[in-house]
Amino acid sequence: MYYSNAVGVGATTYGSRLFVYEVEGLGNKSVAGADASKTRKSGRTFVTVAYNRMNQEMKRIARLGGKIVGIYPAGEEPAMAMASSSASSTPPAPEPAAAPASKKKDDGIPVNIYRPKNPYVGQCISNDELVAEGGTGRVRHLKFDISGGDLKYVEGQSIGIIPPGTDDKGKPHKLRLYSIASTRHGDDVDDKTVSLCVRELEYKNDAGETVYGTCSRFLCEIKPGDDVAITGPVGKEMLLPPDEDATIIMMATGTGIAPFRAYLWRMFKEQHEDYKFKGLAWLFFGIPYSANILYREELEQLQREFPDNFRLTYAISREQQNADGGKMYLQNRIQENADEIWNLLQHEKTHAYMCGLRGMEGGIDEGLSGAAEKQGANWSEFQKQLKKAHRWHVETY
Asked: 120, 178, 314, 329: which is the annotated catalytic residue?
């Protein structure tokens, strides 16, 4: 799954979540939001901005002559050196090719091992179509070789891809973030690969011409043996809890299935020595046609092999009807099962994850609000408690 924003760099996108721009070419107080105590000796300034203001802030920085050289979720920015009180004649040392994860909070989660200026260059191993005949769009499962570097990641994180070439202004393309679709051990369970699930972006411009996404087209066309520039990993919002007997509720639309495929492989296919899942996993998956059920064979095989631990519920909008005779969307399935979901959420080891189109959130809230009201509760207040307890995880775009 790909997250896009106005600056051309992917991001986790919900609510007013904070991000940090690393900017060069500005003074400490040249731009609103800049923190004078967070200025590197190299002259780079760190600017904290809410997601819903990223576009405006990017434009303001550009007007002031600044250049954004990095974007990080708040709390995951690199360690920041205090500004020197006097000018130094010694030029700043170059940044290392592989910067380690920030030591500000050593939780063992790898973050920003590779950055845009020094990405890891891996190779494509395979590129396979996931949409069956009769489906819409083009979605590929891509596997990359990362055995030649230090790139490590965990389930629920994302990596950046920098497409080759330059934009219409002659500048190198900015990275795009994609959710990782494989476990930390990779599809071959040898710690040497990372996989993505990518849909080719295609739309009509104002002139009626067909336009393709720069990075998604590059990835969908990439061939085995071709090089790919990778950054990251990033993200801590969608991590799995360590409890092997947890209940994991997953709600996905389209390529939002990517992180959940990683979860399910870790839970059921690997049974790795340091994690043997014994709980309940329930996946709600919204797609337009049966032919668009990504990873269908894998999912249905898991359902057959682990009927007591894995539940699979499809919402196929163009082929199924909801209770009112309309199209069956993901939120309709959530509403149908709202009472059971509500009861599961009462347990402290239940975690809910949502990944896909941003519009799915309202319908899901509506369905669960009805279940809460039956119990004399307020869904909005309960959801706040879930978020505070880090049991409600959202990554939408």
From this structure: 178
Task: Of 78-92, 271-285, 309-323, give the lowest mean pLDDT range.
Answer: 78-92
pLDDT at 209: 87
Q: Strand locations in 215-323, DSSP E?
A: 227-234, 247-253, 280-287, 310-316
Annotation says 355 is catalytic = yes
Query: In the annotation, is 395 catalytic?
Result: yes
Q: Which of 179, 182, 317, 369 is catalytic?
A: 179
Q: Which CATH architecture has domain 120-234?
A: Beta Barrel (2.40)
Catalytic: which of 197, 215, 220, 355? 355
All CATH 3.30.1490 domain ranges in the chain, comma separated: 18-73
Q: Would residue 216 show up in a list of annotated catalytic residues for this protein?
A: no
Residue 91 pLDDT > 60: no
CATH entry 3.40.50 includes domain 18-73 = no
Residue 169: count of CB within 10 angstroms of its CB: 5
Percent of the chain with pLDDT over 90: 62
The whole-model pTM stands at 0.73
Structure tokens at 171: 């500048």
Active site residue 178: yes
Q: Which segments of 137-213 does DSSP mark as H helices, in order?
A: none
In the chain, CATH 3.40.50.80 sits at 247-396
Q: Does the domain at residues 247-396 carry the CATH identifier 3.40.50.360?
A: no
Report the alpha-carbon distance of residue 114 to residue 121 in Å, rounded: 10
Phi, psi angle pair for 287, to nearest 5°: -145, 160
Cα separation, 193 vs 18, whole angstroms: 31
Active site residue 179: yes
